[in-house]
Each structure stands twice: as structure tokens, then as C-alpha cells.
Amino acid sequence: MILSKTFKKAVFGIMICSVGFSASVYSQAKPQLTDPEIASVAVTANQVDIGNADIAIARSKDSSVLQFAETMKRDHQAVIDQAVALVTRLNVTPKDNAVSEKLLSDAAKTKKMLESKSGKAFNKAYIDNEVDYHKAVISVIETVLIPESQNAELKTLLQKVLPAFHAHLEHAEMIQKNY
Amino acid sequence: MLFLSRCTSEPEKTVPAIHTITISSMQFNPAELTLQKGDTVVFINNDLVVHDITQEPDKAWSYRMAVRISSNYYCSIHPTMKGKLIVQ
Question: Phi-psi region for residue B86, left (φ > 0), alpha (ψ -120 to 50) or beta?
């Protein structure tokens, strides 16, 4: 929950900063991320969830949670591999930016929170975070990364990845009902 | 003398059909398939991520197989992905 709420705030915080303090501040202007920045956000978002999955694999004994975490590791790594292959071919270097850096700083807070828990409390905290995280990332992909991407192949990759995130969210919500 | 062999009519043998189910955007397409007993189903994964096909409750299927009975199936890796084979 920490990650998803502050991640959204980071994205919309950039929106406000980018348009300045005027009447248009409260308009719905989107952040102006470049393709290298979008690539960085995309890769980082997937890396963060792999990190969360590693924690779950180390700490959980629930078979459904463990199976979910293994799927997160596998799927998000597959997305990273595709993204890296694409940016390598396009000769684009992912560029760190406020959004990707906020993802990482919030991931550190989530890590600390998860590592403070054990047993059922851990399982609940992990799955609750996965639900919130995937909702937040889906929203950013749909409203920022896809619309803002200039390169057609990058846009297509993001569009292709989106159903997987939706499936992950549904899977997490299915497990969440047990907690 | 010409001997004409008697023509016997044998029942026509139905050639099993081959059906393709593609996996894309985290869905089986078509999600529901009607086919004849003995037909073959081929699953083709067009997604970025790995999938499997599991007959409910937990019998693993191969990506190509002959179908004998109606079955519900799903991807055990992504259990919200579901499909159905209906044998007529």
C-alpha cells in the first residue's frame, strides 16, 4: 500500500511541477516522460515486483502465495528481457527519472515493512501490497507510459504487457480473499 | 468371362480434425471450443510469458493432444485464465 499510493503521488507530483504554479496546475496535464525515461520506469516497475517476490519466497510457507510469487518473478523477468532487448536494438539507454527513483525508494520502504512480518500477517501484507501495486502500475501504464511513448515498438510492447498485469491483479485478488 | 467383384460399402471413416487454440493477451482463443471425439487440439502461445494447460482439477496437458471427453481447463501459472472443450 505504501508503494502504490506514493507512486501515484510521484507521478502526479511531476505533472504539477511540469506545468508550473498557475490555474492550469490543476488541469489533467500528463507528465512529459521521454522514451528513455519510460523504458526506465517500465524496467524498474518490473524489478520492484521481482524484489517483492523474492521476499515472499524467502518468508512465506503458503503454497498459493509461493506459487504467485514464483509467477511474478518469472513473468516480470520475461517483460524485463523483452524491454532490454528492445532498447538495445533501438540503441536507447533507459534514463533514471523522478518516477523510477520514487519507485525504488518506495520499494525499500515496502521491503522493510514486509521483512518486519511473518506467518499469516506477512502473507496478507504481501498480497495486499501486490493488489495495490498492480493497480497503481496498470494505471500508470494506461494513462502515462502508453500515451506518452513516442516509439511505436515501445508503445506496442507496453500494450502487450498490460494484459499480464491485469491477470496478475486478478490472481492476487483471488488469493487476497483467503486473507 | 468377367468376374466382377462384389462392391461392399464400408462406413466412411471420419478424419479427425485439428483445431488451434491461440494464447494471447492472457486468454485462450477461443475460450470455448466444440469438437468431435478424437479431434486434435493444438495450443499456440503468442504471449510474452509462459503458460501451461491443465485439465481441472490438476491434470497437465501437452500443447498438442487428441481429445476424448469434454473438459474445463486453465493455466495453472495464471489460474484466472480458463477454457472449455466440448466434445459432441
Answer: beta
Alpha helices in chain A (DSSP H): 2-19, 35-59, 63-90, 98-115, 119-140, 146-148, 152-176
What cell was used for B33? 471450443
Q: Is A71 in the B-facing interface, judged by CB distances under 8 Å?
A: yes
Helix (H, G, I), strand (E, B) or coil at B31: coil
Domain ranges in chain A?
2-18+33-176
Is residue A70 over pLDDT 70?
yes
Q: State whether residue B5 is helix, strand or coil.
A: coil
Domain of residue B53, CATH code: 2.60.40.420
A166: closest chain B residue by CA: B26
Taking alpha carbons only, the member of B53, B61, B60, B59 closest to residue B79 is B53
Is residue A75 within 8 angstroms of chain B, CB to CB?
yes
**% chain A with pLDDT above 70:** 83
pLDDT of A32: 86
CATH 1.10.3470.10 fits A2-18+33-176, yes or no: no
The confidence band for A22, taking pLDDT boundaries of 50, 70 and 90, is very low
Average pLDDT over residues B14-40: 96
Q: How far apart are CA A110 and CA A50, in angstroms?
A: 13
Which residue has 511473518 as its cell numbers? A118
**What percent of chain A is predicted at pLDDT more than 90?**
80
Per-residue pLDDT of A117-140, as tens digits, reads 999 999 999 999 999 999 999 999
Residue B67: CB atoms within 10 Å? 20
C-alpha cell, A67: 506459487
**Least CA distance to A163: which residue of chain B?**
B25
